[in-house]
Amino acid sequence: MDAVRLRGEQALREGRWAAALADLTSVAAATDDPAAWLGIGEASWWLGRLDHSVAAYRRAYTTALRSGDRESAVRSAAWLSISNTSDFGNRSAAHGWVRRAQRLLPEGAPGALHALVWVTHAHRLLPDAAAAGPWASRALEAAHRCGDRDLELVALAQSGHVAVARGDREPGFALLDEAAAAALSDADRRFDTVVFVCCDMLGACALAGDTRRAGEWCRVAEDFTSRWGCPFLYVDCRTLYGALLLTAGRWAEADRLLTAVLTLDEKICPAVHARAVAALATLRVRQGRFDEARAMLDRSRRPSAELDTARAEVALADGDPATARRLLERRSTPSLLCARAQAAMGDLNAATTTAAALDPDGPEVVEAAGLAAAAQGRVAAAVDAFETAAARWADCSAPFEEARCLLELAESAVNDDPVLAAARGRTAVTIFQELGAVAAADRSAALLRRLGVRGPRIRATTRTGPDLDRGLTAREREVLDLLAVGLTNPEIAGRLFVSRKTVAHHVSHILRKLGVRNRSEAAAYAATHGEDGSLARCAVPGRGATLGA
């Protein structure tokens, strides 16, 4: 039996999961050894047999306590916490198991076992930087002191995730890049180290909206899973990246990725599967495909905050803010969507309270203030808030949210400033059309028809044609218009209420897409390719949107 045990342990180290499972199952049946049950739990997890994995870890915990093997009891409790967090989305059970592991830790100087438990604490609490940060720091220090390179890389990645969640993106991603590069290149690393590090990387990318970095590391993670397995990593990375693509307006890619996730058995990582359903249902709502979104959510009975949020999106689209509010208020985390539902019901006190709990530097809090001002009939305050929120969403590369704020601005200003309303409405309808947001585009077009704006395709400018389009977004067309009349980047930033960095980003994209070398060539191109040779003009000085001549 000792030879079978050694063979099974060697198979685990080499990532031969089926062989390891077969050998260690034989050992466990003969000896009831907690170390064998731990190995069965690990191999089953990599093979996507989550129920078997949890049962094995529980058996390992029980037999370890009975035999006095405190180390195996701590390890099995830690892995039960990790699995409940990542695979099943049961944070209460995860909390219970990590507390059990913490209580069983040996006294004395912290070592690798302490680092594992502290890493588990941080894993359960992320992306809450304030709560997770101290645990990640303690784990990093303990792992470094005892020389456990794998746990040190995991704690390093968690520290980077914490920094990004705190808003310190550059130093945070520096830690994450370092941890990921080392984890994927070190031939002696443990396989689970790669999983932890990649998950922290993708989680941080989701917080920062960094689709480029997420795409690069997703490709690395897929290469890893194609060789070693791990359905969880495959599904989780795709789901996180798909949600990022949704926010970034790359809907066709998001659709393909999220749909691929849902072809896998729901028993493989049910918590991640629920997040994929929620993201795809949200996409369907934004596309105006409400029946598909409802059907998708009706088939998913699993309790989940993400699913409740998607159901609330459907309810709001159906004109049922009461249901949306009920779904969202039973979750403790305040959200812009909840403030939207409260404002739609006329409960401005609740909407204001919810808004006050949002990130003060983010676009959500400003948009929520705009909703409250609009509901109170304070047009000027609503217009200013929606303008600022749209600019912040643009800086976050969130085009649907940007267009939503522009449309809300247009609807608020329709009576007091119809020229401004038409200008913002044109930009909104163009963005919605480019995204494929049919219902929102129709709503924008209806507003523009009410204002007397005509045309089969209503854009931010009147210029059309394949030469000028060249893939330019609605905002890039606006920037090109202002660039063409000689405005500098700071002046364009002032007109469009965006940062200078955002304008520089748009100008760089314009030059690349038009195939020109500098601003002068771009201006000349715009002048010679406009409809009837004319440039669009700014509707209202200082407001920044453009209307066709």
UniProtKB/TrEMBL annotation:
Pfam families: GerE, TPR_19. This is LuxR C-terminal-related transcriptional regulator. Residues 465-530 form the HTH luxR-type domain. Coiled coil: none annotated. SUPFAM superfamilies: C-terminal effector domain of the bipartite response regulators, TPR-like. It comes from the Bacteria. Keywords: DNA-binding, Transcription, Transcription regulation. It comes from Rhodococcus indonesiensis.
